[in-house]
């Protein structure tokens, strides 16, 4: 962050008084621009034993398959965010959503909140961010064409535990998205 979003003057990196980390601080108005992790909300939607996946039409990982998921917006709940992403990416209506997993991605400062539920009426159609959308059984899932480690992890745990899903908490880190500390509640 080179310029202050409040007054457009230059920022510099320093540790503010009473803090213990470097922050972007405006040289003119002294505003401290804190940067904190982002929440990503997503869902695993099932219809007749198959789960909904979207083929990404955007970078990163263009052309790879993912679960509907995206950054949470202001003024919505995590569950609303998950349902909104399913609608935007696949025109899918999510029903009966429940929390499935909480995934910490400290290396990229993100927290994923993954829900699971039903795909209403099995209806789906590719949204602007998807090249195509589809329903997959466990064996049909393109495991080597999944976009992100958190997607692989979610789907593996989902099929492993079916039909009695517990809530999972895991930390995903390392260069290749290795998974550490999976806990089920
Ligand atoms: Zn400023």
How would you describe this structure to a colleague?
With 185 residues, the chain is mostly beta strands. The protein has two domains: 1-35, Ubiquitin Ligase Nedd4, Chain: W, CATH 2.20.70.10; 38-184, Nucleoside Triphosphate Pyrophosphohydrolase (Alpha-Beta Complex), CATH 3.90.79.10. 14% of the residues lie in helices and 40% in strands. The chain contains two helices and twelve strands; from the N terminus they run E-E-E-E-E-E-E-H-E-E-E-H-E-E. It has helices at 78-90, 149-161, and strands spanning 11-14, 23-26, 32-33, 38-47, 50-56, 65-66, 69-71, 94-105, 110-119, 130-136, 168-173, 178-184. Strands 4, 5, 6, 7, 8, 9, 10, 11 and 12 form a nine-stranded mixed sheet that branches. A hairpin with an 8-residue loop joins strand 1 (11-14) and strand 2. The radius of gyration is 19 Å and the shape is elongated. The structure holds zinc ion.
In short:
The protein is mainly beta and about 180 residues long. Helix content is about 15%, strand content about 40%.
**Helix-strand sequence:** EEEEEEEHEEEHEE
Bound molecules: zinc ion
Under the CATH scheme, which architecture of the largest domain would be assigned?
Alpha-Beta Complex
* Mean pLDDT score: 95
List the helices and strands and how they pair.
Elements: E1 11-14, E2 23-26, E3 32-33, E4 38-47, E5 50-56, E6 65-66, E7 69-71, H1 78-90, E8 94-105, E9 110-119, E10 130-136, H2 149-161, E11 168-173, E12 178-184
Parallel strand pairs: 4-9, 8-11
Antiparallel strand pairs: 1-2, 2-3, 4-5, 4-7, 5-6, 5-10, 8-9, 11-12
The site of zinc ion has 8 residues, from loops.
């Amino acid at each position: 962050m080179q310029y202050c979003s409040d007054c457009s003057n230059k920022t510099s990196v320093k540790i503010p008084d009473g803090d213990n980390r470097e922050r972007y601080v405006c040289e003119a108005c002294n505003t401290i621009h804190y940067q904190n992790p982002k929440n990503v909300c997503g869902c695993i939607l099932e219809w007749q034993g198959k789960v909904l996946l979207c083929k990404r039409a955007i970078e990163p990982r263009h052309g790879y398959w993912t679960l509907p998921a995206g950054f949470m917006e202001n003024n919505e709940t995590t569950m609303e965010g998950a349902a909104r992403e399913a609608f935007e990416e696949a025109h899918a209506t999510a029903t009966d959503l429940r929390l499935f997993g909480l995934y910490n991605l400290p290396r990229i400062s993100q927290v994923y909140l993954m829900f699971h539920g039903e795909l209403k009426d099995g209806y789906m159609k590719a949204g602007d961010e998807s090249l195509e959308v589809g329903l997959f059984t466990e064996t049909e899932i393109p495991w080597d064409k999944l976009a992100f480690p958190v997607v692989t992890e979610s789907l593996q745990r989902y099929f492993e535990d079916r039909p009695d899903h517990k809530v999972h908490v895991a930390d995903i880190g390392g260069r290749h998205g290795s998974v550490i500390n999976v806990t089920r509640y």
